[in-house]
Each structure stands twice: as C-alpha cells, then as structure tokens.
Amino acid sequence: MEKPFLMSVEDVFCLQQGRIVMLTGRIERGRIRKGDEVEIVGLGGGATARVADIDASHVRIDEAGADMNVGVLLRGTAADAVERGHVLATPGSISAHACFAADITLLSEEQGGADVVSGDRLRFHTRSAAVWGTVTLHGVDVVRPLHGAEVTVTLAEPVALEEAQPFAFRLRGRAAGSGTVTRLPR
C-alpha cells in the first residue's frame, strides 16, 4: 500500500493575478499527481483543493515523490489562506493538534541550554512551522541543561503532528533543546 502524501509548506507564491497559488516545499513521503485532491492542515487550515500542476525546477511534471523539492499549484485557493508551516497532505491522513505529550532533552549551557520550568513559553519548531507554546513538566520541578523530562506542551496554534515526530525548541531567542512527540490526544 502506498504511503499517504505529505509535504511541509516552505513558501507561498501567487500566480496569474491571484487565480493560482504555488506552494513550495519538500515532499516527506508518498506521491502526488496532477489532479489529486489535497488537504491544507495546521495553523487554522483545513481546506481541500485539487492539484492543478506540479513544478520541479521550472519544469512541469505529472507526478512527484518523496524527497523531491517541488511547487504544487492549486487553483481556487486564496494566497492568504496558506502560509509557511502548513502541511499539504492526502485528505484525512494527518491532523492538527494544539496539545501533545513529549520527551524533551536540553542542550548544554555552552550550546544555549538553560533551565526550563513548568509554565515557560518556548518557541517550538516542527517541520516548517514555528509556534509559541507553554510547557508543563511531569515528575520534576526543573529541567537543567543536558537533562531530559516528560512534558505536556500546549501550543498557541494547532500544527500538523504525528506520534514519534521530532521537534526543536527555543528559549529566550536561543536554541534550547529538542524532543519527540510521544502521545497525541484522541
């Protein structure tokens, strides 16, 4: 069975006086074909659209697969309805979440790691999305550099997430650590 299509949106371009929108990014998995229906997921997305064309290095192609950098042209989608951080996917294959459980590990102090306590607002980076979130620690009062913890993260906006998905986070504008999604609400 073929894996469902998934592509992180890196950039959005408006073509032909706004009648066509091109979403650029790297295909993480699956295949996409001209004429396929796709869903825009995360950051308030949720619309579906039909693929009008696929652009690979300024050459129009009928199909693209995993690890290709492409532009996906969608007709009838407003340019302001899509932004960096959205995910383009096979409809129903992935959903957006604003809360999740995770295991995190902090960097060393020399690399930018600093103490993290419950209630800290961190900047979470997953795929091409960057969203503010609040962390709640489980079983400890503070996480020190080079240590890890189980946490619950509550994001300001829902993003497309899957279990076992890696992410990074920043604290006070500096890289602070990384983590892995362990559980999503059902």
From TrEMBL:
<feature type="domain" description="Translation elongation factor EFTu/EF1A C-terminal">
    <location>
        <begin position="93"/>
        <end position="183"/>
    </location>
</feature>
<keyword id="KW-0251">Elongation factor</keyword>
<dbReference type="Pfam" id="PF03144">
    <property type="entry name" value="GTP_EFTU_D2"/>
</dbReference>
<dbReference type="Pfam" id="PF03143">
    <property type="entry name" value="GTP_EFTU_D3"/>
</dbReference>
<dbReference type="InterPro" id="IPR009000">
    <property type="entry name" value="Transl_B-barrel_sf"/>
</dbReference>
<keyword id="KW-0648">Protein biosynthesis</keyword>
<dbReference type="InterPro" id="IPR050055">
    <property type="entry name" value="EF-Tu_GTPase"/>
</dbReference>
<dbReference type="InterPro" id="IPR004160">
    <property type="entry name" value="Transl_elong_EFTu/EF1A_C"/>
</dbReference>
<keyword id="KW-0342">GTP-binding</keyword>
<feature type="domain" description="Translation elongation factor EFTu-like">
    <location>
        <begin position="23"/>
        <end position="89"/>
    </location>
</feature>
<dbReference type="InterPro" id="IPR009001">
    <property type="entry name" value="Transl_elong_EF1A/Init_IF2_C"/>
</dbReference>
<keyword id="KW-0547">Nucleotide-binding</keyword>
<dbReference type="InterPro" id="IPR004161">
    <property type="entry name" value="EFTu-like_2"/>
</dbReference>
<protein>
    <submittedName>
        <fullName>EF-Tu/IF-2/RF-3 family GTPase</fullName>
    </submittedName>
</protein>
